[in-house]
Write a structure and sequence with these properties.
This protein has helices at 9-19, 53-61, 104-120, 139-151, 167-181, 202-215; strands at residues 24-29, 41-47, 79-83, 89-93, 124-132, 155-160, 192-193. The chain has 218 residues and is an alpha/beta fold. Strands 1-3-4-2-5-6-7 form a seven-stranded mixed β-sheet, sandwiched between helices. The protein is globular. The two termini are 26 Å apart.
Length: 218
């Protein structure tokens, strides 16, 4: 497995420049027919409710209030889109999953929306699937990976809140996670560990996205 330390200074600088632009909120939608027009390369962030998606997006873009954060799991109920002016990259914040309070019909509607987005968005380059480092991969994370595999959308695991466990535990979790995803057809092999609170791994995540944009000609 490739390690975060593999990123060069050039990669890190490319990532910094990519996210140094003034990012803004574009739109939110709960209906597939209301998606913004296909334009720049898109990356999406998915994960269980309260995994730290909004905090990570804010850390990447340097905008503390760009993506709303909440102590109430499941507050993000729509697809939310963010981009800078003259963008070569856009971000999609996907609805959180895995909380018990939502009615089944609402969960089913969100699942349908997400799968339709995954299958029908040609500009979507990669989904970053966030896993809370304190808990590791749970059943609903496995379900999300199966959905991504079925949709044939490339996805990459990003561990969040890595500052909440000790470094040896982070290393073990990365190894364990790598084993769990090894046979999944759409999973990217590189696993990143981050902390939005401490800033850990943010530069490496930016570098990974910059590499992806460069490969796709953004």
């Amino acid at each position: 497995m490739e390690d975060e330390l593999d990123y060069t200074e050039t990669d890190i600088e490319a990532g910094r420049l990519l996210f140094a632009k003034p990012w803004d909120f574009v739109t939110s939608t709960a209906e597939i027919g209301q998606l913004p027009p296909t334009g720049p390369i898109e990356i999406a962030f998915a994960g269980r409710s309260n995994v730290g998606k909004s905090s990570l997006i804010n850390a990447l873009t340097g905008r503390k209030g760009l993506a709303r954060t909440s102590n109430t799991p499941g507050r993000t109920q729509m697809l939310n889109f963010f981009a800078p002016p003259e963008a070569t990259l856009a971000i999609t914040d996907m609805p959180g999953y895995g909380y018990a309070e939502a009615p089944k019909g609402m969960v089913d509607a969100w699942t349908e929306l997400v799968f339709a987005y995954l299958k029908g968005r040609p500009s979507l380059a990669r989904v970053f699937l966030l896993i809370d480092a304190r808990h590791g991969i749970k059943k609903n994370d496995e379900d999300a990976m199966t959905t991504l595999d079925k949709a044939a959308v490339n996805y990459q695991i990003v561990l969040t809140k890595a500052d909440k466990i000790k470094p040896p535990a982070v290393a073990r979790l990365k190894e364990e996670t790598a084993r769990k995803i090894a046979r999944r057809p759409a999973a990217h092999p590189v696993i990143l560990a981050t902390s939005s609170e401490k800033g850990w791994g943010i530069a490496e995540l930016k570098a990974e996205v910059a590499r992806l944009v460069a490969i796709l000609g953004g």
